Amino acid sequence: AVTICQFQDVKIVRIIHQTAEAGISLHGGHLVWYKPAGEQDVIWLSEKAEFDTQKAIRGGIPVCWPWFGKAGAPSHGFARNSQWTLHEHRENEKGVIVALTLEDNEETHAIWPHKFHNQLTFEFGQELKVHLTSTNTDDHEWSYSGALHSYFNIDDINTVSITGMGDKYLDSVQGDIACEGGETLTIDQEVDRVYTEPKNPIIITDPNNQRQIHIENQGHNAAVIWNPWQALSVSMADMADNSYETMVCVESTIHGQGITLAPGESHTLSTIVSVSKL
Ligand code: TA6
């Protein structure tokens, strides 16, 4: 079943199905939870998340668009702070499909002077699929970057390892210097990296939860991995001081110059997430 309910200041599309449960905030087109049947939450949501239309929700899958990070203002673009429209939903025995849309309007023109149509399609079942299709509806070409900035739920960052993201990265903690690291990442301090030759799948191994999370990205040119560690968590009002221990972001990212679309052209950025037992 698909229902819409109000939570604090935002409307949430609630999905309840034999294969999975999930919730999407129309503010931001932001997935806020996803739990396949018989599993615990796969996506992390901050216990101090604020469902306020003036800010982005902490956790879930923020949609960063039409730029990533501080390539423009506001940081990570305006899509995560825009009101999306529920376009359609369908279900069968395998799962539920929900599509949202966002089009340019006066508010977006004030920030970014281009016409666009975005469709965000979620497929919920034993797997989670998220597809963001951006179409140029203007009469001139434009470029964009962005990310599906997924926060994953883990038991303890100190025990987790991540593989499959490649070994070349720009280290944002050290002023974006180019680095080469090992194929396996363990995290014991703030990590903020743009992996520039990403492979598939990226796998988060979470021994305490006896599971692996598999992340298959498409339409991207980079994978960002982020954990704020303690000092940064303490500095963020919408994160509990130690909550960095139970999350890690692995993001399907379009980085740098981004994608250029001529009038009428489209591009899709995707992430596909599944879980297996260890
Ligand atoms: O994707 C990593 C990152 O760009 C970090 O640099 C960090 O700031 C994070 O995203 C969260 O950004 P936000 O604007 O949501 O606080």
Our measurement of the CA-to-CA distance between the termini, rounded to an integer number of angstroms, reads 31 Å
CATH architecture assignment: Distorted Sandwich
Biggest sheet: strand arrangement: 6-7-8-9-21-18-17-12-15
Shape: globular
Low-confidence stretches: none
InterPro entries: Aldose_1/G6P_1-epimerase (IPR008183), G6P_1-epimerase (IPR025532), Gal_mutarotase_sf_dom (IPR011013), GH-type_carb-bd (IPR014718)
EC number: 5.1.3.15
Enzyme class: isomerase
Family: Belongs to the glucose-6-phosphate 1-epimerase family.
How would you sum up this structure, described in words?
It is a single chain. The longest helix has 7 residues. With 278 residues, the protein is mainly beta. The chain has two helices and 21 strands. 5% of the residues lie in helices and 50% in strands. The strands form three sheets. It has a nine-stranded antiparallel β-sheet, with no helix packed on it. Strands 5, 10, 11, 13, 14, 16, 19 and 20 form an eight-stranded antiparallel β-sheet that branches. The protein has a four-stranded antiparallel β-sheet with strand order 1-2-3-4, with no helix packed on it. It has one domain: Distorted Sandwich (Beta-galactosidase, Chain A, domain 5), CATH 2.70.98. Bound molecules: 6-O-phosphono-beta-D-tagatofuranose (TA6).
